[in-house]
Amino acid sequence: MALSHTHTHTHKKIGSETHSALLVKRFKRAFSSSVSQRVSGSFSFSFGSGLEMGRQGQRWPVWILLLGLSVCVSGITREELFPFGRNAGDRALDEGSDETQEISLQKPVTFYSGQFSQIYINTNGFVGLEKPAGESEYLGNMPAGFGMIAALQGDLDTSDGEGKVFFRQDSSPALLQQAADHINRAFPEDDVVNPISAVVVTWVDVASHRAESRGDGPEPSGRRNTFQLVIASLETQSYAILLYPREAMQFQSTSSYTMHAGFSKGQDKYFSSKQAPYYRITDDTEASVRNLAEQTNSGKRGVWVYEIGTFPHFTDIAPGEVPELPLDSHQFQTPRKHSHQHPVYPDVQQENLDGVYDRPEHPPPIQVQTVQYRPERPAVVEIENEDNIEVDVFTYNSGDCGGQKCSKFGECSSFQSGRCCQCKPGYYGNGVQCVPDGIPQRMNGKVSGRVVVGNSQVPVDFASNDLHSYVVVNDGRAYVAISAIPPIVGFSLQPLSSVGGIIGWAFALQQPGFKNGFSIIGGVFRRQAEVTFQPGGERLTISQEFKGIDEHDHLMVDTRLEGKIPEVPQGATVQIEPYTEIYQYSTNLITASSTREYVINLQDQSTQSRSFKFRETITFEGCQHDEVVRALPSTQMLSVDQVFVMYDRGEELLRYAMTNKIGDVNGGQTEENPCFTGRHGCDTNAVCRPGQGNQFTCECAAGFTGDGRACNDIDECRETPQICGPNAICNNQPGTFRCECQEGFQFASDGQTCVEVQRPVDPCRIGTHDCDVPERARCSYIGGSSYICTCLPGFMGDGRSCQDINECQVNQCHENAVCFNTPGSFTCQCNPGFYGDGFHCSTEYEKTRCQLHRESVLGAGPRGPRPVPGQYVPTCDAQGEYDPMQCHASAGQCWCVDRNGLEISGTRTGPGRFPECPGHDVPRPIGPTPDPNISPLPPGSHILFAQSGKIEYIPLEGHNLKKNEAKTALHLPEKVVIGIAYDCVEKMVYWTDISTPAISRASLQGGEPVHIIKSDLSSPEGIAIDHLGRNVFWTDSMKDRIEVSSLDGSQRRVLINTDLVNPRAILTDPTNGYIYWADWNRDAPKIEMAYMDGTNRRVLAKDGLGLPNGLTYDPQTSLLCWADAGTHKVECMNPQQGSRRQLMEGIRYPFGLTTDGRNLYYTDWTRGAVVVVDRHARREVDEFQPQKRTRLYGITTAHAHCPSGQNYCSSNNGGCTHFCLATPAGRSCRCPDNAVGLGCVEREGWN
């Protein structure tokens, strides 16, 4: 599905930019990280700790956007600039040719991932984020060596008094609205942006410092430029609006340099003198400068809008998404909705009827134009027979092909000596495993082993550390991250980029006539590598087993490291030089070797140069008949450059990035087609198709649609609702879809058709077992056709034959009593003259509880026992025990009691009626009995919500409520249920009750409610389940604390008990190890998060909140949403990025909130209803009002299946003795608060 950032930007290439931020978003989602990157030379990257959210929203076709903007074909005029000059309240920069003015900002500007409270206005057409260097260091250079926003940077001059540079800070409503209009027009599919502050800088009639030596001939006197920069900011976000009036742009060069526009972060603090990310709007040509006034990315010629920073996490500069119409054109073609065509992009200087364009010497900015569409290969997943759909992209054709089973997207090809699998057009691989052309690829796995660092005598052990990798295949960029690496070894592992660099070889950018690893051998192979370090001779062995592609389309790998590595001092960074490797291919074997050089940058600014030798062998099972593979060169060279490594001590993450190309051992052409260099500007989900010379086209990959520059996921499930057939559920995925059988159905032997599950017969229920008779044995069903026979208490045997135990042989009665053996039991009877129960006998008669109770009520007086008028007097049977039926004479009511005289709930009758009460000598039935208060849930997913005295459910069908099938799942008379949570593993519902108070649970398959926590509670409200660690979390708004317990309540621990006032909603993210909660403290409401062990607590939101009641988290999109009864809004944010946006406003009084797919569901006190909100449409789409109109409280989703994901506590309780509480990088072993004498061991991390 299509992914999105805080804003759903479809990043298009401007100038020499070739990197789409959509790549970054998908990379971050796969890695729980954030990436920022630059192009045009080198790039850098950084990882955060969060998951990037996804959104299944649809984009408007480009032609619709263009049609709506047809009124904007004229360029901006000088009069349409933001107000400037003395009358607007501006200050003026001193006159001169290189003047700088520092400004202290009232509201900080966010640039990349930093926030700046001072900026520097300069004559030379830019704003610095730090004090500018001398102009000799930056004129003609882009990027600059310091933080810069270049509106139009050049050698400018205002010393003649005619030119001026005006600037001001402005928060007036009119100006902020003008800025918002430009931003919202540029990003039409994003949330509406409302800036809270702005900086306006205007260069008015500025001249070149010296006469231009370039341009359209000699410079006439009086040639001037006027342009404007507006930096509009929110609390944690900033935008740059650049305005270039056509008639006021009169020169493009100063001195001997072409002027430049763009953004530069400056020097990267992580890589010493390495250039940090930058973004060029123009290139080195004057044509690109002229285009600033002629083109746009915001729907208005001459106006350019960019998102330039988000705090604290940032991906990449995001350009506006509305390129405008070609000059003097109002004619539009309306493509069909399901067109499998893509536009080709003519050169901006000269149109080419071949549908391709020649790359000029310096790439110009790309303008999206209405062009002729030409039929190409369909950009959808091809299904040979829609009645024969495979569930998994990587399922196999049933036929055998030379001993191989071909991929669904492969076919069996005949060669002279036999048959082999080959991928179909539009896919690549070895035929057994095929992936679509152009789709970014991911690799997941575990790293284990033992490594000795330097002279240490103690090895460092690894145990299932996570490895994640991501490759943008259409330009060969690979990213790798390994988690939970302790600092003692993390810094020293920096030189070993080859641990994850194998995926770079597997998906390297292919030069003509050469193939990357996956194209030749697929994803199943073994790799053995040996690293020998110089000059110390330390050796490390890397063993990797690649297991193919899993159901999530990720390549799987297990890695083991064994050996010794030289020490890299802690705090040092490593710079790896570009290198090449020669791969030699033979039957089922590939070998390679290289020498790697790297530089260690120490904290004292000194450096050390080192190297190591690297040798590897790759073994695989190929098809010996494949003539296509045999025709490939037997030697190929992998070229690796732009290698960056970093160890993050705080996150304990090891990160690598590199660019990979596979080609000729003798090098390549000096001028290559952009498809082979990666500098093509195609979308990350697109294929670059080379043409003649430097010509190429961009084509969206299978499963995506668009023009190749911007590709959006095709939602096959929405477009063809019955694509999966009957009794199946369609789940859209990026570039494809998957079919799953509904609850109660399973795939038939063909792997495609969903057939009803033949539920196993319970032999115990129908009596076909061979256990002894029920009076002596119990039959216990354990699933399938299996059962266990066990003898009842009082009997002995194997369950199939049971004999009575004569308990009287072991005298258990009182010495003054006689023992009588009975089947399965025995009785004791006191001897004559003695009184008692046979276990205790005495000469004095002991009254029973009932007799004592009766006497206490009747009392004693001079005229004998007499009851108080109107008081209930119990009746006792002949043995002095409570009569099973008790009656109140004056009230005329009767009821049943248990052996202790306690009333049995629900048995009281009115005058003239008598209940049926079982005798106390009737044995209780053995085994569970259905509770009449519980209605088992039918198969499928459901919405559960709490109402006074009961929990109800509404079945889900896709995104819709099946309201006519809503029922009560659980009757809880006289209870006030506040929060509810569902355990997807055991199909149980948990709830908090403030009337008792208590925390309870019940199986929704049938079973009695059970209290798990009854003590030390005051007002338990929010509740959440960790289905992986098997724990339950809750908030108590009177005790002001957050606690955790095991699901049965046997262990319990207070996690947080400070700085809480009214905590209510709480939820868990077990896969990533977080808990989230809301505190509706009226004086200071807030939403917070922490690790699941209660550590690393931080506030996510506190401003603009009222009464945040409901809270929900979608693990698929990493989106945290809340419903606020004070502000009457629903808002969402990505917890790891801090970005926040409003989803809905004007709601009434929300209480609980949950999510399922694209929809949010909340309970509303005022409306007495469950309300459905479509997150993508940002509007209410349905509601359900139960028959009993009372206040609705908690709400949750009971999914048919547990969400995918694991954590360190999923297996063997994480090795913990008691509590295993997940954290982002591992787990914490914690003891219950009452762990005295339990032998509990507390541990951190994964040791």
Automatic annotation (TrEMBL):
Organism: Cyprinus carpio (Common carp)
Subcellular location, principal: secreted
Keyword list, A-Z: Basement membrane, Calcium, Cell adhesion, Disulfide bond, EGF-like domain, Extracellular matrix, Glycoprotein, Repeat, Secreted, Signal
Cellular localization per UniProt: Secreted, Extracellular space, Extracellular matrix, Basement membrane
Name of the featured protein: Nidogen 1a
Lineage of producing organism: Eukaryota, Metazoa, Chordata, Craniata, Vertebrata
Superkingdom classification of source: Eukaryota
The Nidogen G2 beta-barrel domain, residue ranges: 439-672
BP terms from Gene Ontology: canonical Wnt signaling pathway; cell-matrix adhesion; epithelial cell differentiation
